[in-house]
Design goal:
The complex is a heterodimer. By secondary structure, chain A is mostly helical. Chain A has five helices and no strands. Classes of the chains: A mainly alpha, B mainly alpha.
């Protein structure tokens, strides 16, 4: 027998109760009486049987209201959601590639703003350096 | 051979109203009894069940056919019941009143019979529900729903967790809390009466 009181709220209907503890513990015995009473009340609660025409009435109600557009829209959205996801991912990837590799997409207008470059020969560079060192 | 719930759902989505009738027939008992045991009023059951199945139909496109249908329907039913309770509160109608003195006396008597008499006797079936409803008035709405699904509908903790959209542990905690509160409430009613009777008896003996 354990000295600890039985935790009745955690007791499931099929669980075994420590009978030896119950015999020696008036408090648990009292609580056990309440639990059994509550369970008996719950067991005796009636269950409702729906009317035999309820399902047919529901189906007629749906038929009369017509097939709702929203229902088909939800269904279509659900079916097409993977396609949309793939499209979004593909577009994002493409945009990313474009910004990363900008050189392959030179804007044609850039030609207008190109500054004319002066041609610099090797001799000119060497002479300039010699001149500077000579000073 | 009977179609699976997932097949029925597919048929309904393709416009088959017969399939919807079959789906209602399959799950109507579950819906009716959750409403009845949660709200405790026979009069509102059919109207609310109709509301539940209309919601089921309108939102069927969002249902994931790879999951079981019953917990999904239980969830819609539970939400409709909670809405109904909210509406009633707004209209200041209390559904679950405290037990009157007469009702408390009735509980004491039934309890006395069951403990001191021959085995367990119970009140009439409808009275049991009335008594339990009154006791359950002390529970909050969600604890009450979890308790109803577990104790009255006999659903597993996993099914309730799926229906309520919470973890299994949360369901266990709620059920345990609800049981403890109900036991304490019943204890107060039953033993308060017993103490009162003992007091009267002592008074008579003293005279």
């Amino acid at each position: 027998m354990t000295d600890e009181h039985i935790s009745f709220p955690d007791l499931e209907p099929g669980d075994q109760v420590d009978e030896t503890h119950l015999k020696g513990c008036p408090e648990c015995r009292r609580k056990w009486g309440l639990v059994r009473f509550l369970r008996a009340q719950i067991r005796s609660i009636p269950r409702l049987e729906p009317s035999p025409f309820f399902a047919a009435r529901m189906a007629a109600l749906i038929r009369d209201s017509g097939s709702p557009f929203v229902l088909h829209l939800q269904w279509a959205a659900r079916c097409l959601s993977p396609v949309f996801l793939i499209l979004i991912l593909a577009t994002t990837f493409l945009l990313y590639q474009i910004t990363l590799d900008g050189s392959s997409f030179d804007p044609p207008m850039g030609v207008l703003f190109e500054e004319p470059q002066e041609e610099v020969s090797l001799d000119f560079v060497v002479n300039s350096l010699l001149e500077t060192n000579g000073r | 051979m009977a179609k699976s719930d997932a097949e029925l759902v597919a048929d309904i989505l393709s416009g088959d109203s017969q399939a919807f009738e079959e789906l209602v027939r399959r799950h109507q008992r579950l819906v009716f009894n959750i409403i009845y045991h949660y709200l405790g009023q026979r009069e509102v059951v059919e109207d609310l069940a109709q509301e539940v199945f209309l919601k089921v139909f309108r939102t069927l496109g969002t249902f994931d056919p790879s999951r079981p249908l019953a917990p999904w329907i239980s969830r819609i039913t539970a939400n409709c019941c909670l809405d109904q309770l909210r509406r009633r509160k707004r209209r200041r109608v209390t559904l679950f009143s405290d037990l009157s003195r007469d009702e408390e006396r009735q509980v004491e008597e039934v309890f006395d019979q069951s403990v001191h008499g021959e085995g367990l006797t119970v009140t009439e079936a409808e009275d049991s529900l009335k008594l339990l409803e009154s006791l359950m008035g002390i529970l909050n709405k969600k604890d009450r729903m979890v308790f109803t699904l577990r104790e009255l509908e006999g659903q597993s903790y996993a099914e309730i967790a799926e229906a309520m959209g919470v973890s299994e542990l949360a369901v266990r905690i709620r059920v345990s809390r609800a049981r403890r509160k109900l036991q304490e409430r019943l204890e107060r009613i039953v033993y308060k009466g017993e103490d009162h009777r003992r007091g009267n008896q002592k008074g008579r003996e003293a005279k």
